């Protein structure tokens, strides 16, 4: 069948990109309720027929109507990456001809767009509930694991030669966190599954850690159907992973070639991200004691 006869599946695009981590897709719009405010997100069309270039996010008040709105472009936030083998991937436009290629979880990079939407909506409405914020970050753990495997294959000396072990631990902890959040959020719908640079991955893990901490604090107060002890264990696991990776990054390593430099430097999508060692030094969270170092110690 001629692909141009198949309209862009806007509902699928919104579910995969999920600009509102706590939103529900209905029709061609994603909506979330935050306190008294409603937040909506919808794809924005270009002047070309059935061609979409970004997401328009609106904040609605029950008394004043729409109080703010903003546009977040796919190209500006690297949502579809820089895949030169896919039509229009570099322009950040979604249309009938490329939707089959672009609307795949492993080909999306929604993290930067989600972060921008989160920062924007936070100025007008309550933040997303922590259980949904944490779930949206789970995909970043898998992406970080794959990036670590890439670093391990291109430059085995990096991370004290333990990149593959770090990746294994990340996947193990991700499954444990998923099991803890499932009663609160339902099926895991995160679509963050594209490799990205190590500093960006560490920042994503810290955001997940903060969301889990907030959820544990709320569980203590409201006696919700979630085990705050288990959530704090996940936080300690993430702290230990973060400390282990940063310690290995800061340790001595053999200088590599151009492929190794590309693996550990900022990607084209996050060109402003500092080098791994610089990102570690600038981390707002101090390095905790390696209380969960046994996960890796047994693999040395």
TrEMBL record:
Extent of Low complexity compositional bias: 253-284
Residue numbers spanned by region Disordered: 253-300
Name used for this protein in its record: Uncharacterized protein
